[in-house]
Amino acid sequence: MVSEAEMSESISTRLAWVAVDWGSSNLRAWAMDAGGAVLAEAEAARGMLGLAPADYEPALLAVIGDWLPAEGRITVLVCGMAGARQGWREAPYRPVPTALDALAEGAVSPAVEDARLDVRLLPGLCQGADAGGFDVMRGEETQLAGLAALESGVSGLVCLPGTHAKWATLDSGRVERFHTYMTGELYRLLAERSVLAHSLSEDDLEDSACREAFSAAVAEAAAAPEAFTRTLFGLRAMDLLDDALPDGEARGAVLAARLSGLAIGLELAGACGELAAGQSVRLIGVEALCRRYALALSALGHSSEIIANRRAVLAGLGLAHAALAHDALDHD
Amino acid sequence: MVSEAEMSESISTRLAWVAVDWGSSNLRAWAMDAGGAVLAEAEAARGMLGLAPADYEPALLAVIGDWLPAEGRITVLVCGMAGARQGWREAPYRPVPTALDALAEGAVSPAVEDARLDVRLLPGLCQGADAGGFDVMRGEETQLAGLAALESGVSGLVCLPGTHAKWATLDSGRVERFHTYMTGELYRLLAERSVLAHSLSEDDLEDSACREAFSAAVAEAAAAPEAFTRTLFGLRAMDLLDDALPDGEARGAVLAARLSGLAIGLELAGACGELAAGQSVRLIGVEALCRRYALALSALGHSSEIIANRRAVLAGLGLAHAALAHDALDHD
């Protein structure tokens, strides 16, 4: 049996750098070896929303401290909200269009007390009025960079579903433009805090009635986006009047699937305009949500391909780390 | 000087019937004489959401008790949520298409203890899937009846802005179909509970910057309803990036005006499809909100005419009262 101390020692002797995805509510860290393999991973519920600048270094050490060797300086490469203005230190947004292998150029180093730490915070991306309309992202650019690392010179439309879903148009490994849709937040507000809350329960897209209601709603919202706020109230009216709906828990589940379909369908009506015929959408994110988007896309006749969140983030941080290392060699 | 007792006596000797608009949060009552003039009016913050069935009669008497003569039976005609399933007693919805002068046919009488009261609760309207899509209204039908009373044989598109805005298509004094848009509730959720809350303050459409932002957003949402959830997040990005916006309080006001314009513009994109060229929209509701809608309609090149809430409700209750009185004569 290997003791915890022996395990840590085995990590610290092989540790080349640390990859960190530090969001609004969580931090996830991976101990990386020189070949890009993951030696260990850890996480904590310590996100930007609950941290003052001085809290970041202790929060980081609590998660990765055991991995660090006694001597030497380890690069800790961080993407996400830790680099926001309200985060550890601001890594200013880089404007699009921009190359995804150049993110490291915008990294900033916060002051640290522990001499073993060389922390680099990666920047987010911003877009001006003329470049496609005001927009910002922070964290997703690293997932996009991961895609560029996994598929050199990647082009096409990429969707990162979530509270604020991002759609990026890539061309030969560059972000040409991107758009954020407030779909996830809108769904949650409507499902939890509107008059609809009493009509809804949790949906289950494995269930055929939910699946059908979801797909029909996607097609309906995409075909008539101008009716969106009308179809929202229609959910309440259906609950009162529609005898064809199932009773009890199943009724709320079908109505929730329909609301989800309406919200995602409205998003797709806006986002899929950039999709060339026959072109597939790459989806990066958590599995269940990506599968929901894949179903929505298929309801509109579009195909898609899912790339797991973790794989994309690690590849993106790896690409930035390679650029930093290369840059360091150049300057030696 | 006239004492309060003398005033009540003067009302009760001339009182012919009582008109009541009883909504989710308030009740408003008017003492009417035989010629249709208002002798007195009163209101209380006692709505359907805070009342059990047994609470309605005492709540009504607390407001109108002083008006009632010692003897005789007075008709109290009530529209609104008091007739909902969760209200005093259910007055079942009448399906559209339906004539607006026939609402009284669907009135129900709740049991009362005070022998002076003859309470009639007016029904709401419902719409089936085949008649224009599932929808319901309760209260607004009486405002529409008021319009039919003020303008015999009225036809055209009528909008009643609010938490759940109603659009009704009238033809010769009949409701052909109607649609509810969840605009007001959606705006409030986004303005108060979403990520946008920190970027917004209260708008003022008398201010030219707010007015311009509002009108531009109406036109933008109506022209590209599929971009709605994208333009929502765009408000956050504008707050972060747009140097052309004013600073301080004025910044939040302009962004709030823009959010309001986007939400109402999306509604108009759906609702104005039924509007024939050159046709005007009748707006019934509270003054400030109707003026906001009138501005939105004018941004899309449509004219409108505002009918005050109180005038429409009183005329609608008056029409129903006349029908009841006529019916009583027929049966005498």
UniProtKB/TrEMBL annotation, chains A, B:
Lineage: superkingdom: Bacteria
A Pfam family per the record: DGOK
Name recorded for this polypeptide: 2-keto-3-deoxy-galactonokinase
